[in-house]
Amino acid sequence: AQSVSQHNHHVILSEAASLELGCNYSYGGTVNLFWYVQYPGQHLQLLLKYFSGDPLVKGIKGFEAEFIKSKFSFNLRKPSVQWSDTAEYFCAVSGTYKYIFGTGTRLKVLA
Amino acid sequence: KAGVTQTPRYLIKTRGQQVTLSCSPISGHRSVSWYQQTPGQGLQFLFEYFSETQRNKGNFPGRFSGRQFSNSRSEMNVSTLELGDSALYLCASSGRATGGNTEAFFGQGTRLTVV
To answer: Is A70 helix (H, G, I), strand (E, B) or coil?
Structure first.
């Protein structure tokens, strides 16, 4: 079955701390992976995406993610978080005419 | 260019009623998909439309239906509302077919509360 797992449901960090959010997927076809972010009161927006090529992808606002095929993982990282990174983060894999999302990780960054 | 527009932003309905939500995709986008977002469940796929044809449907009861018009605008309808239908309903549009290596652009959603 196609699925995405995000193991960290709630994460609390202080500013300047490093961030890593886990994402594991189960999908039998060609893998296209995404991280979306939802800031409070705003719409979901794309942070970064992986389609092929270099498994380390860089996105907006200093985020990056690494695709590790052998581990079926696509973890999101940021070396130093800011208070403005407080949001909910969703990992997704694209399927046939749909996207399959994880349950999300709520990140709270303390100033 | 304008983003994905969903109306209304907020709705309060009573159990047993029906509701219609609207989504206007980004100009030129022909694919629209719908998701239900609830705390702890993430986004659950409802259905996808491309050029007025439904091409995929999620595991939701038949009370949930949708359609797409020739101008790519889409509506979803929920009949016989239940308390468990309370959620944020998100619409996404894509320039090409949803899925694959295509990015989806999301609207701000319609917050439906069933009382």
So the answer is: helix
- Alpha-helix runs per DSSP H in chain A: none
- What is the C-alpha separation between A100 and A31, in angstroms, rounded? 12
- In eight-state DSSP terms, residue B68 is E
Q: How many contiguous H segments (helices) and E segments (strands) does chain A have? A: 0, 12
**Token reading at B54:** 């439904």
pLDDT in tens, A43-95: 999 999 999 899 999 999 999 999 999 999 999 999 999 999 999 999 999 88
For residues B86 and B61, the answer to whether their CB atoms sit within 8 Å is no
Chain B hits for A34, Cβ within 8 Å:
103
How many CB pairs lie under 8 A apart between chains A and B?
69
C-beta separation of A54 from A64 below 8 A: no
Q: How far apart are the first and last CA of chain A?
A: 41
The answer to whether B34 and B47 are in contact (CB under 8 A) is: yes
**Residue A92 burial (10 A CB sphere; 0-12, 13-18, 19+):** buried
Q: Do A100 and B58 touch (CB under 8 A)?
A: no
